[in-house]
Model the fold of this input.
Amino acid sequence: MYTNHEEHTIADSKETHVKATSTVARNNILTLMENFIEQIFQIRRTLLGVSISALILSPIAIGLSIFLIGHPSFFSILEIQNEFGTILGLLLATIISMSSIWLITGIRQYRKIGSWNKRYKEFMSEKEQMDRKLASKYGY
Done:
């Protein structure tokens, strides 16, 4: 049916098509990974805002609660106002404990975000080096 030359041409054509398809698939995967990493970087900014707010608001809440507990009229309010005093005491204790947890979580998150930011910058510089290397090699 086909001559030997035609068979090689068809085989070469199929091989070229497979390579092109493989290259496109690889490029799509790399693009997806880059987009995913950029989305995580955007989320990192949100988490950074949350951790900074924890670092600012938690000490304020703890300080205000301790000020109220340390105020001279606090214990007289607890004695005079039975239910209100009990609820106020529980509320302040809850605020102090939750704010302490929030503060510790904010500190941990801030540290993790800092290390992630360093790795992201390393990734971006390596990516740029690879892009430049590929561009110079293939003339893009």
Observations:
- The chain has a mean pLDDT of 78.
- The chain is about 95% helix and 0% strand.
- The longest helix spans residues 4-70.
